[in-house]
Amino acid sequence: MDLEDIRKETLKFKISLAYWEYMSVLCTEVPENATATCNDPSNPCLFNVASDPCEYFDVSKSHPAIVKLLLNRLQFYNSTAIPPGNKPQDPRANPIFWNNTWTNWFDYLDQNSYSFVA
């Protein structure tokens, strides 16, 4: 890497940092007049993330058509989803056994020489 490459990389990094402040959201304590209580799946919330990026104020009651549109879209996506192909949980997959790395550990497992003590 020559000096020009280093300058280009430094410039890219500085530009990235400059944009980071626009991409970051710093949320304060929840305001006393906050309306978002989204714990009930049968009563979904809707937020205006442009004016309320911390999602304190639920606007679903004032925009039921948007909620319906989004729920229909989710229903469509769910109707085309493929069931998960996950295998049952296996304690041997714990990253602590693989250099604290999430990896496709089963490919490297020697079935004849591995023992696991829980």
UniProtKB/TrEMBL annotation:
Q: Name one GO molecular function term.
A: metal ion binding
Question: Is this entry keyworded Hydrolase?
Answer: no
Question: Is the Iron-sulfur keyword given for this protein?
Answer: no
Question: Its domain of life?
Answer: Eukaryota
Q: Which InterPro entries match?
A: Alkaline_phosphatase_core_sf, ARSB
Q: Which UniProt keywords apply?
A: Calcium, Glycoprotein, Metal-binding
Q: What is the protein's given name? A: Arylsulfatase J
Task: Tell me what organism the protein belongs to.
Answer: Armadillidium nasatum
- State the encoding gene: Arsj
